[in-house]
């Protein structure tokens, strides 16, 4: 049975309704600061915390409820500590209603100061919440306005809050304080992994299913993340995003961010199937699409310029799942609205990316690594053949290397005229990836540049491509048989450069 409740909330949503219900059940209400002021204005009988503890709020309100009269009343075991309570003139507190200073909201403001962040770290609130949740046998705790109705319903129905409900609310309370502390820690460490670290996620949505229809799935958003990404995108139309949609759209966006000039990336099953850069948006899209029009069917199209009416006319004639763009012209939206299931995602400031680390789930843990976001420069290339690549070939090599970072290993791609013409992705042998890239390239292979994400272990790949009149090869180097591979290039008069770095992607 609830005889006395302590109400101290920052978010005052529905607190009046709860207080009126408590008053109806003859519950004594203790309250603090702004909460007490609001309730008095609503003619709710309230005992202010200073009066209850016979100790004033001090230090500009920093110390209000950290007091043995308060904590003792919450933590006391009713069947053990009654003598102590009577001896020290401590009354029992049976319900604690508390939510916390808005630390997350403050740090989301890019103009906030460290001092403002620290001033919004709640101390007394988490203490009360954890005390109440610990004393689950006797005390109920509410940390969110959504909890209030459950308490009111039980008071109306049975005159008390059941143990089952107290247990449910205690779980939520410990989760609330855990998330709160994690947010502070992650803020101070700037989200850099430490020897011990926690990450907090808010549910974005339940998904229809996972990778396959028999798998359940949900999407979670990293708490406090304001960056421009797929989960923060504005969806203009179309069905709910699926698990695979999100994976593919994220892959497309990550690849697209490699480029400052007009670019189009088309992704299928998390691998690029066509990538092009240029000056004209429609032409760039058409080049990316023609790179592998078969694989583009049902894929994701991502562009880094506003989706225009002219481009929308092209897009409406093919089957794709998603278009990702920084914005859409009104006429483009109107044209694409005829394709009801097509998702249109607006990701503003696509070029801006704050991601520093990437993580992969393991059975029993995670792997954390620095994001592969460095840019290969011309002066880092080492020409290792007698035949030197032209300036245009070097440009194609650098473009290809940017794409390679986003193709599953083993990966071989061919580049021509600022466009991928063949992508051999995810093969367990390099020679198989070469075969696929050649097959995909078709007639466009002549005059193209071949890019490899890791070294060639043997000369067989070079001998195979020698018949296709390639303009050059770029690869990391580092094989014990590099000299054999270089000899093969020299025999076939194919320019080759080493990067000195690998770009595996698993």
**Largest β-sheet summary:** 6 strands, mixed
The CATH architecture name of the largest domain reads 3-Layer(aba) Sandwich
Share of β-strand residues = 15-25%
The CATH superfamily label of the largest domain reads: Methylglyoxal synthase-like domain
Helix/strand structural class: alpha/beta
Number of domains: 3
Span between termini? 58 Å
Could you characterize what this model shows?
The protein is built from 19 helices and 21 strands. By secondary structure, the protein is of the alpha/beta class. The chain folds into three domains: 4-188, 3-Layer(aba) Sandwich (Rossmann fold); 229-346, Cytidine Deaminase, domain 2; 372-498, Cytidine Deaminase, domain 2, CATH 3.40.140.20. A six-stranded mixed beta sheet has the order 8-13-12-11-9-10, sandwiched between helices. Strands 16-21-20-19-17-18 form a six-stranded mixed beta sheet. Strands 3-2-1-4-5 form a five-stranded parallel beta sheet, sandwiched between helices. A hairpin with a 2-residue loop joins β9 and β10 (271-278). α4 (68-75) runs parallel beside α8 (124-134). The longest helix is centred in the middle third of the chain and has 26 residues, at 163-188. It is elongated, with a radius of gyration of 31 Å.
Describe the SSE topology.
Layout lengths: L3 E5 L6 H10 L3 E4 L1 H9 L5 E2 H5 L14 H8 L6 H6 L7 E4 L4 H6 L5 H6 L4 H11 L5 E3 L5 H11 L4 H26 L12 E7 L9 E6 L11 E4 L5 H14 L5 E7 L2 E8 L2 H11 L1 H4 L3 E4 L5 H7 L6 E4 L4 H7 L6 E4 L10 E6 L2 E6 L11 E2 L7 H14 L7 E5 L2 E6 L5 H12 L7 E4 L7 H6 L6 E4 L6 H11 L3 E3 L8
Parallel strand pairs: 1-2, 1-4, 2-3, 4-5, 11-12, 12-13, 19-20, 20-21
Antiparallel strand pairs: 6-7, 8-13, 9-10, 9-11, 14-15, 16-21, 17-18, 17-19
């Amino acid at each position: 049975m609830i005889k006395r409740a302590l109400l101290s909330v920052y978010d005052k949503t529905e607190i009046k309704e709860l207080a009126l219900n408590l008053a109806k059940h003859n519950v004594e209400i203790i309250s603090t600061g702004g909460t007490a002021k609001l309730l008095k204005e609503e003619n709710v009988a309230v005992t202010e915390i200073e009066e209850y503890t016979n100790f004033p709020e001090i230090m500009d309100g920093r110390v209000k409820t950290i007091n043995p009269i308060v904590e003792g009343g919450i933590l006391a075991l009713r069947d053990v500590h009654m003598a102590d309570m009577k001896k020290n003139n401590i009354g029992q507190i049976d319900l604690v209603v508390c939510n916390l200073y808005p630390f997350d909201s403050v740090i989301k403001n890019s103009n906030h100061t460290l001092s403002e962040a620290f001033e919004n770290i709640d101390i007394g609130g988490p203490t009360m919440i954890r005390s109440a949740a610990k004393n689950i046998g006797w005390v109920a705790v509410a940390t969110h306005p959504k909890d209030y109705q459950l308490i009111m319903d039980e008071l109306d129905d049975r005159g008390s809050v059941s143990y089952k409900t107290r247990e449910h609310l205690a779980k939520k309370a410990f989760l609330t304080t855990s998330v709160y502390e994690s947010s502070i820690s992650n803020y101070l460490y700037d989200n850099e992994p430490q020897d011990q670290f926690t990450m907090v996620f808010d549910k974005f949505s339940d998904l229809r299913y996972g990778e396959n229809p028999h798998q359940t799935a949900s999407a979670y958003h990293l708490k406090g993340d304001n960056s421009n990404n797929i989960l923060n995108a504005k969806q203009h139309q179309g069905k709910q995003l699926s698990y695979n949609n999100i994976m593919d759209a994220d892959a497309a966006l990550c690849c697209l961010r490699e480029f400052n000039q007009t670019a189009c990336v088309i992704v299928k099953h998390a691998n690029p199937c066509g990538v092009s850069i240029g000056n004209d948006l429609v032409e760039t899209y058409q080049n990316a699409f023609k790179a592998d029009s078969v694989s583009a069917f049902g894929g994701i199209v991502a562009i880094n310029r506003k989706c225009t009416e002219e481009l929308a006319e092209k897009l409406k004639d093919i089957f794709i799942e998603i278009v990702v763009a920084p914005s859409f012209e009104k006429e483009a939206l109107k044209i694409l609205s005829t394709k009801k299931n097509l998702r249109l995602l607006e990701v503003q400031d696509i070029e801006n990316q704050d991601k520093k680390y990437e993580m992969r789930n393991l059975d029993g843990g995670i792997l954390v690594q620095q994001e592969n976001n460095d840019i290969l420069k011309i002066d880092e290339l080492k020409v290792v053949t007698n035949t030197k690549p032209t300036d245009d070939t070097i440009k194609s090599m650098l473009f290809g290397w940017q794409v390679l970072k986003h193709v599953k290993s083993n990966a071989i791609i061919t580049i021509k005229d600022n466009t991928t013409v063949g992508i051999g992705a995810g093969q367990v042998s390099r020679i198989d990836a070469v075969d696929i890239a050649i097959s995909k390239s078709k007639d466009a292979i002549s005059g193209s540049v071949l890019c490899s994400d890791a070294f060639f272990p043997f000369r067989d790949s070079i001998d195979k491509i020698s018949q296709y009149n390639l303009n050059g090869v770029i690869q990391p180097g580092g094989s014990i048989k590099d000299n054999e591979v270089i000899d093969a290039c020299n025999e076939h008069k194919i320019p080759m450069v080493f990067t000195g770095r690998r770009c595996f992607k698993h």
